[in-house]
């Protein structure tokens, strides 16, 4: 007997209704929405460079706040900056705030195991574990403590000593990390992992029916010649929510693909707005200008419009400044001839080692092929080109 689509939809609707009824009986956690204190509750990481427990860096706080307020964010980053961990912290906070009762999708541009790994790192934030200082085991503390901590009348340690310890089972109802990685939280929020299918056909993601956030990591590394179909399949899942979050995060990978195109669209719009030519060396200036307006609360007023993708650009220097990246390691990477350092660590779109041709050697021949080119190149090639532009 074949089950109809209508029967399937009715079944899942009934399941979700029963689940929500059950979730109403669980404790309604009201964690602090201050990202720094929330991360402290989960347990700050121990810096391998300083040996000290480390709060979120300012650029990481800005990244979280952009997700909260701008919703569609594109991050162009150096490798090894902890940007993905920042998104996970932001999502962890929102699981019990804006995302409560809805679905989250983790996507990866390369393989399912990458998306699964990022989802597992979200789960690790809530695991029962000891933290480096022996005190940071995940505990609930009253958000009203924050003004006391900031005024100095209460220390963070005192707040934690009197806080209620939270166990994984208090927050997570079910998790699996096999072929269909999923985390189900006790408040009805669900998180899934999904990987780019390396074929040039649009495929809708059909696992979640109530998406409120999508995190697409390694977005420039789909391995597809034409990868716009992937975005065309994903975007409709957020069509009914103006406040849904969509984060594209990646190191650059050549001058092609939807990630590069979306980034350049933002740069061109900002270049026109600020009257700054869009060149490789002006991207940081454009990003800094729009970020400065946003932080001053003048983003909408001064620009007069909202960017489709709000840009962040974080090269390796910021990682060194905040003890996230080792200066010694970076110097060794600069000397490695097998690494495209400008692309991997300085956020430039150069080329890719998997390209069929070296894009750095390409030249543009204009439509009206000049006499100089006619002398330089064979007549039969020029006839083949005709009046079209070509790259050599």
Keywords for this structure?
392 residues, alpha/beta, Rossmann fold, 3 domains, 8-stranded mixed beta sheet, two-stranded antiparallel sheet, 12 strands, globular, disordered N terminus
How would you characterize the overall build of this protein?
With 392 residues, the protein is of the alpha/beta class. It has 3 domains: 26-53 and 129-166, no CATH class; 56-127 and 171-358, Rossmann fold (3-Layer(aba) Sandwich); 362-392, no CATH class. Helices cover 40% and strands 14% of the residues. The protein has helices spanning 5-23, 35-42, 58-69, 83-95, 112-124, 145-151, 156-161, 168-171, 228-234, 257-274, 283-295, 299-303, 316-321, 327-335, 341-345, 371-376, 379-385, and strands at 72-77, 103-108, 139-140, 164-165, 172-176, 182-185, 190-195, 211-217, 245-250, 310-314, 364-365, 390-391. The protein has an 8-stranded mixed beta sheet, with helices on both faces. Strands 3-4 form a two-stranded antiparallel sheet. Strand 5 and strand 6 (182-185) form a beta hairpin. Helix 3 (58-69) crosses helix 4, helix 4 packs across helix 5 and helix 10 crosses helix 11 (283-295). The chain starts with a helix and ends with a strand. Mean pLDDT is 82; it is low at 1-5, 14-26, 353-367 and 384-392. InterPro entries: P-loop_NTPase.
User: SSE string, helix = H, strand = E?
Assistant: HHHEHEHEHHEHEEEEHEHHHEHHHEHHE
Give helix % range: 40-55%
What do the pLDDT scores average to? Answer: 82
Top-tier CATH class of the largest domain: Alpha Beta
Shape: globular
Strand order of the largest sheet: 5-6-7-2-8-9-1-10
Number of strands: 12
Estimated structural class: alpha/beta
Specify the CATH architecture of the largest domain.
3-Layer(aba) Sandwich
Q: Give a short account of the largest sheet.
A: 8 strands, mixed
Contiguous low-pLDDT stretches (5 residues minimum) are 1-5, 14-26, 353-367, 384-392
Number of domains: 3
CATH superfamily of the largest domain: P-loop containing nucleotide triphosphate hydrolases
InterPro entries: P-loop_NTPase
């Amino acid at each position: 007997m074949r089950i109809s689509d209508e029967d399937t939809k009715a079944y899942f609707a009934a399941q979700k209704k029963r689940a929500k009824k059950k979730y109403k009986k669980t404790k309604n956690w009201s964690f602090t929405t201050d990202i720094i204190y929330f991360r402290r509750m989960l347990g700050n990481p121990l810096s391998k460079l300083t040996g000290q427990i480390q709060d979120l860096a300012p650029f990481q706080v800005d990244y979280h706040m952009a997700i909260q307020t701008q919703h569609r964010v594109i991050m162009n980053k150096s490798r090894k900056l902890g940007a993905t961990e920042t998104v996970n912290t932001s999502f962890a906070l929102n699981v019990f705030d804006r995302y409560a009762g809805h679905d989250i999708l983790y996507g990866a541009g390369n393989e399912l195991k990458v998306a699964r790994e990022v989802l597992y790192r979200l789960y690790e934030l809530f695991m029962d574990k000891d933290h480096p200082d022996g005190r940071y085991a995940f505990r609930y503390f009253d958000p009203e403590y924050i003004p006391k901590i900031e005024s100095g009348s209460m220390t963070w340690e005192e707040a934690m000593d009197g806080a209620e310890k939270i166990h994984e089972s208090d927050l997570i109802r079910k998790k699996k990390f096999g072929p269909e990685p999923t985390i189900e939280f006790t408040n009805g929020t669900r998180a899934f992992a999904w990987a780019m299918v390396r074929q040039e056909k649009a495929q809708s993601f059909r696992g979640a029916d109530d998406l409120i956030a999508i995190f697409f990591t390694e977005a420039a590394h789909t391995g597809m010649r034409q990868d716009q179909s992937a975005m065309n399949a994903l975007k409709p899942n957020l069509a009914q929510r103006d406040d849904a979050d969509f984060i594209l995060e990646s190191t650059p990978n050549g001058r092609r693909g939807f990630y590069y195109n979306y980034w350049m669209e933002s740069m061109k719009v900002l270049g026109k707005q600020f009257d700054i030519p869009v060149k490789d060396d002006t991207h940081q200036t454009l990003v800094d200008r729009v970020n400065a307006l946003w932080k001053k609360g003048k983003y909408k007023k001064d620009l007069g419009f909202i960017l489709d993708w709000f840009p962040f650009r974080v090269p390796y220097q910021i990682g060194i400044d905040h003890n996230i990246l080792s200066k010694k390691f970076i110097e060794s990477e600069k000397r490695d001839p097998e690494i495209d350092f400008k692309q991997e660590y300085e956020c430039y779109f150069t080329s890719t080692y998997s390209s069929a041709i070296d894009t750095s050697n390409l030249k543009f021949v204009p439509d009206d092929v000049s006499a100089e080119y006619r002398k330089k190149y064979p007549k039969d090639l020029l006839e083949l080109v005709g009046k079209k532009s070509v790259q050599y």
